[in-house]
């Protein structure tokens, strides 16, 4: 609601502690393996289809704690955020992180409690900043995967994204998102989309506006649009289809083996 996504051709992405993609639906649709959840919408007789990376931009805090002490100290000295320094450094790394691909299951995939995160493709060229960029790319890859699952289950076709959450402050992250999804990404005037959605609900309930469509048109303001770079989108499309989508199926049995070994060890 706060993103203005009240038609089924707009997806809202929230880059917060959990990274989320949500799509408005006028039909009730569920996924047997819970690739997405189906919630009731504020608009009567409609639903929201939501997929998540549970430890989404939490991974940025994890990265800063474990690998970016220098940037954190420098940010404190300059009076800026560590993310602004990391994002600036990230621009020196080409799209696709020179072959470093991350699957962001630092919290397990819902349908498989044994699943784990993975980073593949390391070489001697890779640095900490490559890992940082691979985290951002990996979260976007996973949300694109969920988007495609929702589209296949519903028949909807997403034409644009609306972004919120702390990650949406970053122009670099917004451009990466546009390139990975190969869709325009529109930034709303506030990153606090849930709060804006609640305000829209209140405006309709108090008759400040006669309906949700009017309230959204009056209260949701797009401030900037990021268009995909065709060259970057082509690289990301191949990495997504030819590499990312194969990581979990290829490693699924390995994850289960790890769990079995650790369970046997702990039981002795």
Mean pLDDT: 94
- Using the coordinates above, name the CATH class: Alpha Beta
Helix content: 40-55%
Principal-axis shape: globular
Determine the N-to-C terminus distance: 52 Å
Number of domains: 1
> What is the subunit arrangement here?
single chain
Main sheet? 7 strands, mixed
Cα-based radius of gyration, to the nearest Å: 19 Å
Low-confidence regions: none
Structural features, described:
The structure is a single chain. This protein has 268 residues and is α+β, with helices and mostly antiparallel strands. It has one domain (10-267): 2-Layer Sandwich (Nucleotidyltransferase, domain 5), CATH 3.30.420.40. It contains 8 helices and 9 strands. It has helices at 58-67, 69-78, 82-90, 128-154, 171-181, 193-205, 212-219, 230-267; strands at 10-15, 19-25, 37-40, 47-53, 101-103, 118-120, 160-164, 185-188, 222-226. The relative contact order is 0.17.
Brief overview:
This protein is an alpha+beta fold.
Keywords:
single chain, 268 residues, alpha+beta, seven-stranded mixed beta sheet, 9 strands, 16% strand, globular
Topology:
Elements: E1 10-15, E2 19-25, E3 37-40, E4 47-53, H1 58-67, H2 69-78, H3 82-90, E5 101-103, E6 118-120, H4 128-154, E7 160-164, H5 171-181, E8 185-188, H6 193-205, H7 212-219, E9 222-226, H8 230-267
Parallel strand pairs: 1-7, 7-8
Antiparallel strand pairs: 1-2, 2-4, 3-4, 5-6, 8-9
